[in-house]
Design goal:
By secondary structure, the protein is α/β, with parallel strands linked by helices. Helix content is 48%, strand content 16%.
Length: 231
């Protein structure tokens, strides 16, 4: 069964593309067949770091967006990963609504999984609430508390939105922060996380930097391995 994973959060700067890159690397390292799409027309981070595994998609053009569902329906990959840019809810909703994607996915046995990456701000909770209201039980959800973008998630933890997410059986996952200078060096390399942990490819990273990345990936992979519709 192929699942479509939409990696979003609607806000800029919450770490959506880092999560998408981690999912791609997880699939590579675990030999899980996958396809990846980058929907950001101006700053395609997933396409930049995983160009051999990823292609661009334009959500504002239905014929382009259709490629997402077509790849999933072919059934030769386990996961289809879609890296959504900020403020992409409207074109995504228009495509899904006009095409009846949720109903078609249900008929085809294709799970839709919305990953919503949040920081500690109120807007993240509000935008999550809108997502849950829009798709309800037609989709599955993974809420990612990005500890690299915030430490205090009390607003979310005490919100009715969290209660609604739990009612919908959402997975709530904490994403540990990577040491800031190490992440900056990885981004300067324009390479995958694999390249960061290999001495031959991770030029610019110290031995301890590479070790920190290995430990970070291991801890995240432990969380990913328990995710439904992923491993």
């Amino acid at each position: 069964m192929t699942a479509i994973h939409f990696i979003g959060g609607e806000k800029g700067g919450v770490g959506k593309s880092v999560v998408a890159r981690l999912l791609a690397q997880f699939c590579i390292d675990k030999d899980i067949p996958f396809a990846a799409f980058d929907a950001d027309p101006s700053n395609g981070s997933l396409l930049r770091f995983y160009q051999n595994y990823c292609e661009a998609v334009d959500l504002s053009r239905f014929e382009s967006a259709d490629t997402i569902f077509t790849r999933a329906a072919e059934g030769n990959v386990r996961n289809v990963i879609v890296d959504l840019p900020a403020q992409s809810d409207r074109p995504l909703e228009q495509w899904m609504d006009a095409s009846g994607i949720a109903d078609l996915a249900a008929e085809s046995g294709i799970p839709l999984v919305f990953w919503h990456v949040i920081d500690e701000c109120k807007d993240s909770v509000r935008l999550l609430g809108a997502l849950l209201a829009r798709y309800g039980e037609k989709a599955s959800y993974c809420i990612v508390k990005n500890l690299g973008r915030g430490k205090d998630f009390a607003l979310f933890d005490s919100s009715p939105t969290k209660s609604e997410a739990e009612r919908l059986h959402a997975t709530i996952l904490e994403l540990p922060a990577l040491h800031g200078p190490a992440m900056q060096k990885i981004d300067q390399l324009d390479g995958s996380f694999w390249s960061a942990v290999n001495s031959s490819a991770g030029e610019g990273l110290s031995r301890l930097d590479r070790q920190r990345v290995r430990v970070w990936l291991y801890r995240i992979y432990e969380r990913f391995s328990s995710m439904p519709h992923l491993a």
